[in-house]
Amino acid sequence: MRPAHPDRPARPLLIVGWDGATPELVGPWMEDGTLPHLAALAKRGAWAPLRSLVHPLSPAAWTSAITGLNPGRHGIWDFGHRAPDTYRVDPTTARERHGATVWDIAEDCGLRWAALNVPLSHPAPATTRGVFVPGLGAEELEGNTWPRELAAQIEAELPGFRMDSNAYEHADPADFLADVNAMIQQRATLATSLLQRERPDLMMCVFVATDRVQHAFWRQSSLPGVHGRGHWRFADAIRDTYRALDDALGLLVAAAGDDASVLVVSDHGFGELEGDLYLNSILEDAGWMTVRRTASRVDRLPAALRPFGRRLRAELPPRFRRREADLTFGHIDWATTRAYSRGLFGNVWLNLRGREPHGIVEPGPEADALLAAITDRLLEQTEPDGRTPLFDAVLRGAELYWGEQAAGAPDLVAVPREYRWMTRSGREIGPRGQLFSDPAVRHTGNHRMDGVFVGAGPGIAQGARPERLRLLDLTPTALALLGIEVPRGLDGVPMDDVLSCDVGWTDELPWRQPGEGAAPPDRDRLEERLRGLGYLAE
């Protein structure tokens, strides 16, 4: 790799991530003065909704953002992945990632970089020109930063530095929000200090506070166009969190300097969560899955009364039906199971012969016919009102994703209506006949497809307002702004609708192999963290 413009130094680039920031809030709050620093960037540059991936889930979305590759090439879809030759699901980390990150490419071109708290970027290989602070996927700084001594320095300057904060860790919402605010302030202080001290050519810093607070408080909040509980004492928590991030943005923009380009991006948007789904219930009822169950009280009723009993059980509070819902993949009879669902949001795999350890479905016409039948059955499903379609679409994984790792994609990707419903890892099998459930964790908000893009500075067209941009195009756009040739082999392309700089191209495609130079993470502690986030269930 080489710079596209070797005759001039790289222009500095600051990328600020607001995890889960959504245009339905950012737009009105830029207009009414709640977010003055973001509004100032948009006024002198560009802003637009930023389309995420299907599904709009942080591991795949942020990984595509920092690599310019679709999941079929970088190999990351979810917080968990199936261990080879088993049905066991292990937590996903950066050790499973294929391809080079935007900062890998910057380093190859001789530039200095810093990456702070980017989700699923940990563990990172050693670097000679970069600064790395881990995000989601790491439990502590010690042994996980580059340079290694940076961990002690951060702890000395910012005691109790938080990489994450979650509602489940606090009994009182006030304590949670205070912790979130402290996390924002610490991260802003660290990023500002590194910008001033290291003067990196590229810095990417992600703030996860928006995601965490919106998950916890969406339905309870007073929001533009949403009738929340305005009388609740924390009804402005989401707005206050955005305001704190805007204050932090002002500090970072000032520290980056007038010659820096600045991009503010989110990996997905946000909206209301209705509840969880037991997608395997549909497969089991259709005879495509066999679960070894002990006879429940409902199953012991006369056949004519069982449908009534199942409806009654579904209406019980979760604490009264948890005993019967406590089933895992260990209860599946794989010898007679043709399809199964696992993971977040809605995915179906066939129990395919030659791929799964105990596969029984033959690849080819038999598999295609089964996928078609499952698709039809899913599209027939309705929400509890009996009228509204439960799924917006059911897509073939082979049509959504492409590349060397596409074999790891789900066979079917079921898109719940507006992502108001979701399946949940570790909670895939519920009581017989029960499709809907309250959320496994006390969340009232969930992801949406459109995140946010705001950009300004050298190389960004002033006044650009495209209808929509793509998260997949972030890395090629960043390379163009840095003056680095853009590899034609990436899946993303530069955002021509917002760029005013020249773009150089190359046929060379930098690459990193999974786990290259990175130490393995503590999987038990990572599982505990993901469970608390609601991405894994008990």
Short description:
This protein has 2 domains: 349 residues, 3-Layer(aba) Sandwich (Alkaline Phosphatase, subunit A); 164 residues, no CATH class.
Describe the secondary structure blueprint for this structure:
Blueprint: E1 13-18, H1 23-31, H2 36-43, E2 45-51, H3 58-67, H4 71-74, E3 80-82, E4 89-91, H5 102-108, E5 113-118, E6 130-134, H6 150-157, H7 173-198, E7 202-207, H8 209-217, H9 237-256, E8 261-265, E9 269-272, E10 275-277, H10 279-285, H11 306-314, H12 318-325, E11 339-341, E12 347-350, H13 365-379, E13 391-396, H14 397-400, E14 412-416, E15 421-422, E16 436-437, E17 445-448, E18 450-456, E19 469-470, H15 474-482, E20 486-487, E21 505-506, H16 523-533
Parallel strand pairs: 1-7, 1-8, 2-19, 5-6, 5-7, 10-15, 20-21
Antiparallel strand pairs: 2-18, 3-4, 8-18, 9-17, 10-16, 11-12, 12-14, 13-14
